[in-house]
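batch job 7 of whatever, protein = Nucleotidyltransferase-like domain-containing protein
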Amino acid sequence: MEGSMELSNVTLLSGETFDENVLGAVVLRQNGDIPFQSALLQDFDMVVLVLHEEQDREHIVRHTIAGDQRTQSVHIGLFALEQAVMAGDNNELLISLMRGEVIWDPKGILEEMRREILQFEGPIKERVAFMEFARFLHMYVKSKRYIEAGFIMDAYNCVLIALYHWARIEVSEVGAFPEPAIWEQVKSMNTSVHKLYEELTVSTETLEQRVELVLLACEFGIMSKMTDCCLLLFNILNSRKEAWSIKELLQHSGLSQLESELPLVLRKLVSRSLIREITSWADVHEGEGHAIRYTL
């Protein structure tokens, strides 16, 4: 009854109605005492994150006003929220989930998600590590291609993003979930990636020299972290006897968000003999040769 009353209160405040069959709702309010707040609160008094059961539910945003209170409501499916939080694609959703006030959670789904993020172990840790590694590798390769072509500013931009993903890996390795303000999080850890960030951004060397230096460090970082960060992929490849095509891997729920990055990871792992590529005479695409499949 108490949860129902709270949900009704939020409905009244936001000027929006939604039925009590939603899986959960979180309210994030303006708080002048907090140094960093979600960008979703910009020009709004509160954000309401509403969780729905439908996995294919589109991300719906509504703006409402009741009196002088402006509210931004974000409606999202459970699967989409899990994907966004794990992938780090939407830091604002993570802030709302972790720092907001849970006002409707009859099945305990939101509290369970919070608990898993705070504990950060097992499958969730493996998934974050792999996704960050895949993006780290992708941006490293892009930066390397740009600098080879003489596009120094583009190379700088890509290697800066590569360091961002490397920093998220470093945080996950110590058993903490990577927060949106990642550089503030790694600052106290005295890690090599933070030193590289400073080297890239404030060094007196030329921009090209800085990028080349950091790219060398990134290459070493990729080699040293590859095995540990790819446990998720190894487990997927090992989950059946048959080898996997790239299409099948991209259809897997744990890899579906890595359409651009996964091919690079697979080829890198093959080159390091950590996985194998195989072909079959029975697996021929007309006019395209034999399909490549991957296995351990």
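notes: The CA atoms of residues 63 and 148 lie 46 Å apart.
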